[in-house]
Amino acid sequence: MNRKLGLIMTVLMGLVLTACASNEKQVVETESTKPVVVDTANVDRNAYGSGYSVSDLASQFGIDGDPLNYKVLYFKYNSSAIDERSRIIATRHAQYLGEKGGLRVNLEGHADERGTRDFNLALGERRAQTVAQLMNTAGASSAIETISYGEERPVNVAHTETAWKANRRVGIKY
Asked: Do the Cβ atoms of 90 and 134 come closer than 8 Å?
């Protein structure tokens, strides 16, 4: 008898609690109708995993769209230090390589014509190695090879600051 009374009390308590519950509608979602929630505030501030918004990438760094579309990183005179624009591009390539796994990439280091041939070969190698280290740190799981062409393969053969700027680079080749 006590068991029956206990069962009846439990059912009655359940009904009372259900009657007191909020009248808000609950949406039951199935796999096919499950909505996707996008936090636009966070996406906007971290476009392509860069830590910047899409508009900041365009206005501050001249990167329109996915940084993966850019395959050349530029350097200052006599330097192998990576600037922020190049870091964003290299990091995005590293993410891509990490996702694809097994891809091979060549990093081709270049220098402008100023300096000796040996110095420029070494500078191109340092630039390529710096990019390779950044990409490995950022998650590239592929084979990365570096090569230096020094001043031997200029994209602009003029003897101007604009030409030299264009020639101080690392090219990313898949």
From this structure: yes
Superfamily name and number for 58-174? OmpA-like domain (3.30.1330.60)
pTM for the structure as a whole: 0.73
Of the candidates 117, 115, 171, 112, the residue with the CA atom closest to the CA atom of residue 146: 171
Other CB atoms within a 10 A radius of the CB of residue 164 amount to 18
Residues in Cβ contact with 81 at an 8 Å cutoff, skipping those fewer than 6 apart: 75, 130
What would the pLDDT profile of 99-133 be if each residue is shown by its tens digit?
A: 988 889 999 999 999 999 999 999 999 999 999 99
HSE at residue 118, side-chain half, CA atoms within 13 A, is 0
Domain ranges of the chain: 58-174
